Amino acid sequence: MKVKYFTTIAIATILGLATANVSYANFKAATNSNSTTVSFKIAESNPCAGKANPCAGKANPCAGKNSTTTVHPKYYTENGMALDGQDVVAYFTQSKLVMGVSQFKHNWGGTTWMFASAANRDMFAKNPEKYAPEYGGYCAQAASEGYLAVTQPDAWKIVDGKLYLNYDKKVQAEWMGDIPGHIALANKNWPTILNNKELLR
Asked: Quick check: 153 and 83 in contact, CB under 8 A?
């Protein structure tokens, strides 16, 4: 399914109010309807208009360097923890959702991962790429559509030894309708979508 994302924030623009967190569920419901949606660009005033450029005539310190900074973190993080705090190793070893605890944590990939046991924490520490979810734990279906969305811990599936998470069970069912096709599309979009302005919630 191809989805085109339109934002309708004309009133918010006038009031100077805008948000980068948009409901993915509402977004999908709106774009699946037959109604016509109008797209608006957010008009922002330039705070530097009429001011002298303080960097004029100075060398760019970033020139020639590759920047790895993205708008959103590489791994979906909530409240300082990777994902929603679930133990990603347990998906593989116990085939079920198990929440981690603060006693067993490991810092990797720019965030803190939680585990239910020291054994799971150590397994992750030895080979984090094996257990870390695809697309940084963001929604696999949204990634296939070119969007970035949060996920629910219970909307998970392991395919060919890799962990995939989705926004919720309903979106996961849609993703499972064509897993190979959705993975192929998401692989093309990842990690470019980390620079999307919106994180759909």
From this structure: yes
Token pair of 88, please? 């990603």
Residues 6+ away with beta carbon under 8 Å from 169: 152, 154, 155
- For residue 28, which of 65, 8, 45, 3 has the smallest C-alpha distance? 3
Could you tell me the CA-to-CA distances from 201 to 78, 80, 123, 127 in Å, in that order? 12, 17, 31, 30
User: Would residue 10 count as lying in a domain?
Assistant: no
Residue 137 lies in domain: 77-195
> Cβ distance 73 to 108 under 8 Å?
no
Give residue-wise pLDDT tens across range 81-134.
999 999 999 999 999 999 999 999 999 999 999 999 999 999 999 999 999 999
